[in-house]
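Let's practice the habit of predicting before peeking. Look at the sequence and jot down your guess about where helices and strands might fall. Then scroll down.
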Amino acid sequence: MGAMWVVGEPGPERGLARISTEIASLVRDLGVSAGRDVVGIVVAAEPNEPASELATFLPLVLAIEDPAASELTWSSVAAAHLAALAEEVEPDVVFAGAGPDGRDLAGALSARTGLGVLTNATALAWTDGGPAVDMSVFGGRLQTTSGFVAGRGIVTVRPNVATARPAESPGSVEGRDATGTATPAVRVTERVSEAGTAAPIEEAKIIVAGGRGVGGPGGFGLVEQLAEALGGTVGATRAAVDSGWIPYSQQIGQTGKIVKPELYLALGISGAIQHKVGMQTADTIVAVNRDPDAPIADFADLLVVGDLFEVGKALLEQLRARSG
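Done guessing? Here is the structure:
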């Protein structure tokens, strides 16, 4: 029997990307039901720190050090080494994140190995024929379950579909030689970090989001004040982003970020399916909307029918009174 690989993506400050911890937890459970080993693999210029972090979730992590990972695109470097390793030990399934780096990695690795790819997984199970992968398609209107004809392949997993849970005991890290060569050797000439909130919106426990109903960039002033009072982060719909009211980095939905906060406060958001797929797994959804028949009413835990500015200002006064 082959093993399942979890590719650990390097995160900020030489650490491990959060999505990799979520995938490791999800695949660790899958490995138990499938009766297969789960191995983490980290390719980085300095892999020790992210590999050690991944080892708190998995029993074994292979660390491949390659200075080129800091100079060239990470996905091309990682794909080269993973493909070389796959020639030695054929994995059953390779799991990666469904973010920009993970998608690039999946494509490059597929081209090198001939393995098929299933993208944007929202849930995983194991059958006699291999992994059964649930995916959200057609803008979130349908859920499909797919597998690989040969039982082997590459799966990208969407962020926030699982909760990161460290293993009962930490695993070990083993170093491996860098044996692959990145092609094409695309060099990174500049890295730009956008100024924003202290934590990425995908990691926020509280999100206050605004939609077309806020009326313009000025309307997001109230959204920002509520987010600050609640100790949360500001989010938005695609309509608000496309209108130029707020940066794309705060967009939530099918073409934006997938979030899973404890509280999601939606102001002036109708709840179209494209937005729903980005926030429907929130623990508690509270919506404020003039229209009692807005789609968001069907899945919100609490719907407040009224003017978002009146309701929002009243809520802000109560929050400030409590904190004062």
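How did you do? The chain has eight helices and 14 strands.
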